[in-house]
Design goal:
heterodimer, A: 314 residues, 13 helices, B: 354 residues, mainly alpha
């Protein structure tokens, strides 16, 4: 069985971790927003803007890490816009989120056309290169899969731990979680629900943008329209699948990416070439829906998700 | 830390200034932002707006083009307006549009050799059913399993488009299509006739206007319309009043999906004559903007669709003349959407600083 053999190669798992990386950033970002009580449907557009901003910055001459920071700042700006409208003004998170996605996507495409009016194929940049972590890379199977990745992947994995520690072990994390569960209690403590929620959306949006930047600065070395291609929506499904917990969300992202890596490989087998390629491309989206169905009964949704908080109201 | 404490207080009897000033400011701000962006592209904002207006409404050709472009947007706008009114977040109008287009092609390329008077109504009903069934799946997932319909309808767009692509490169591929992934052409009996002799405007536009009136009647005059609004305002209160919330949501989804599918039917039968993967440049998503700008009012959807279509058609010709990327139109609409939602809220609430 070719398929079983694929599952035991290090290159397969290395690909899975690589495919998971942008999803990990964006899923963490969405998770932070939702934990504070705000659904951020701007995710898809914010990823597009981050993918462009990081790549364009590096193309214009900044360093790679500065590019990542610029992508994050652009994402945070859209997060500021989203949270201003949804938190203090309490506007529909669905409508504002979709509006932010439209705005981020169209302004990115506009900026692309202004910056590169003449090009037919987008220019390439010197993207992040894989870095082999000494010693650890020699562990069989896991070593090459986990420790011969690009620095952004390592950052994604570190961020999972960091976000989990902050959410569960610090007063800040407690405040964020409480803002999403019981905002009235947060207000009673003398904390500003508005500030906590806005902060969470801004930081979360920054992470989404870095997820987008991974695509242009690490996975590929160029920017294409439609390159985010629904990954943002998949991340929203992954947050549900992960029951709003960073560790489980990581597991979900890697599992999902493993299926994605598998379908690419199965496509190339003698069996796969007999099946229309669209069938394989559908699988990630179908899997996301299946995951939602399986997990929805058990999911512990933040109690105040999508419910605006207006001080003085009961 | 900066303390920005504010509170929203409902206004009981908003006066005319309260009702009109925030939307006016929103509109002006949208124009201002668009002007700045046009200047970034090195163009004179006045000539940009002039070119957009001229390209959209300046000649008979332009006007007909705008009406044609507005037709699918009326259908998808209605689909979104109906769903959002009941707080059923159908973001999948794009997929439902293609479902209608697909059925139109399947039934219209010659397997049914019926006269137009029977064939066209049959295809219309079949399209509505196809779109309704496609949205029934996310609706049932929501009511049965509690799966959020936003994500499922969004993901369905990707799945269904790939499905259509699979058919267009497989069984539905036109053998005469020079290798392009394109369906065969509809037989003449399956084509929508023109609204007026000699004018490039088809009956899809008439059907769209008719649909908006029907939806308006349903929403304002029927029990179902009342129930849909009640569910949208407060699910718990609606359930307490004896309304079966799930049943209302499913009925809403069926209507919404059917309306979006008519966009696909009308584009294929009225305009294109065959199915390709670029049938819709995002009409399903733009329908959300149309519905929101219309404040979810079915008759308002017609006006909003004409406005949005005008901007897109106008931006196309503006782009050719002034060299400003057409994406300016998308930015303008996104900004208008966000600011309008804010402005409408400010007509009903007062911001109080603590």
């Amino acid at each position: 069985m070719e398929i079983i053999e694929i599952l035991f190669t290090a290159s397969f798992w290395a690909a899975a971790i690589r495919i998971a990386s942008p999803l990990i950033f964006a899923t963490l970002g969405e998770l932070i927003c939702e934990r504070a009580g705000v659904l951020n449907l701007g995710i898809e557009g914010i990823m597009v803007s981050g993918a462009f901003a990081g790549w364009m910055a590096v193309y214009s001459g900044t360093g790679l890490w500065s590019g990542v920071c610029i992508a994050m700042l652009v994402g945070m700006l859209f997060g500021l816009l989203h949270s201003t409208l949804t938190v203090p003004f309490g506007l529909s998170q669905h409508v504002v989120g979709l509006g932010v996605t439209l705005l981020a996507t169209s302004s990115t495409y506009y900026a692309y056309r202004l910056a590169l009016p003449e090009v037919t194929s987008p220019p390439k940049i010197e993207a992040f290169q894989p870095y082999e972590v000494p010693i650890l890379v020699d562990i069989p199977l896991i070593g090459t899969a986990l420790f011969s990745q690009t620095p952004l992947t390592y950052l994604a994995l570190v961020l999972v731990v960091l976000v989990a520690v902050i959410l569960y072990r610090t007063p800040l994390g407690l405040a964020v979680r409480a803002a999403g569960e019981n905002p009235a209690a947060v207000a009673a403590q003398g904390l500003s629900v508005t500030a906590i929620r806005m902060g969470a959306v801004i930081v979360g949006s920054g992470l989404m943008a870095v997820g987008g930047a991974f695509l242009t600065m690490s996975a590929f070395d160029s920017f294409f329209f439609e390159m985010v291609n629904g990954r943002g929506w998949i991340c929203i499904a992954l947050v549900v699948f992960g029951s709003w917990q960073p560790g489980k969300a990581l597991l979900g992202a890697v599992l999902f990416a493993a299926f994605d890596a598998l379908q690419i490989r199965v496509q190339q087998t003698s069996f796969g070439t007999q099946i229309p390629y669209q069938f394989f491309l559908m699988m990630p989206y179908i899997l996301s829906i299946l995951a939602l169905i399986i997990m929805s009964r058990r999911a512990e949704v933040p109690a105040a998700l999508m419910i605006p908080f207006n001080k003085g109201e009961r | 830390m900066v303390r920005f404490q504010m509170r929203l207080e409902p206004i009981n009897n908003p006066n005319i200034a309260r009702k009109s000033v925030p939307p006016a400011i929103a509109l002006l701000t949208t124009i201002l932002i668009t002007s700045v962006l046009a200047m970034l592209a090195g163009a004179n904002p006045f000539s940009v707006f002039g070119l957009i207006l001229e390209g959209a409404f300046g000649s008979q050709f332009a006007l007909l083009e705008t009406l044609n472009r507005a037709t699918p947007l009326i259908f998808t706008g209605l689909a979104v307006a109906v769903a959002f009114r009941a707080k059923f977040w159908n973001i999948g109008a794009e997929a439902q549009l293609y479902a209608g287009a697909l059925i139109t092609v399947l039934l219209g390329i010659g397997i049914l050799q019926w006269p137009a008077a029977i064939l066209l109504p049959f295809i219309i009903v079949a399209s509505i059913i196809a779109g309704a069934i496609l949205l029934l799946v996310p609706a049932l997932l929501k009511t049965r399993f509690g799966v959020d319909e936003v994500v499922t309808t969004l993901l369905f767009n990707f799945i269904f488009l790939l499905f259509v692509s699979m058919l267009l490169e497989g069984p539905l591929k036109d053998p005469m299509g020079m290798g392009w992934p394109k369906s065969a052409r509809l037989i003449p009996e399956a084509r929508l006739p023109r609204l007026f002799e000699g004018l490039r405007l088809h009956w899809g536009f008439g059907l769209a206007i008719f649909s908006s009136i029907i939806v308006w009647v349903i929403q304002t005059k029927s029990t179902l319309g009342y129930e849909m609004r009640a569910v949208g305002l407060n699910k718990k209160a609606a359930a307490f009043a004896g309304i079966s919330v799930n049943l209302v949501l499913i009925k809403t989804a069926l209507i919404s999906g059917g309306l979006a599918a008519l966009a696909g039917f009308s584009e294929v039968a009225g305009l294109k004559g065959s199915l390709t993967l670029d049938l819709s440049p995002g009409f399903g998503y733009t329908g959300i903007i149309v519905a929101m700008l219309a404040l979810l009012n079915p008759l308002g959807v017609v006006v909003a669709a004409l406005f949005v279509a005008g901007i897109f058609v106008g931006a196309d010709s503006m782009s050719r003349a002034a060299g400003v990327p057409t994406y300016l139109a998308d930015i303008m609409l996104a900004v208008a959407l966000l600011l309008m939602v804010l402005a409408i809220m400010l007509t009903r609430f007062r911001v109080i600083r603590d």
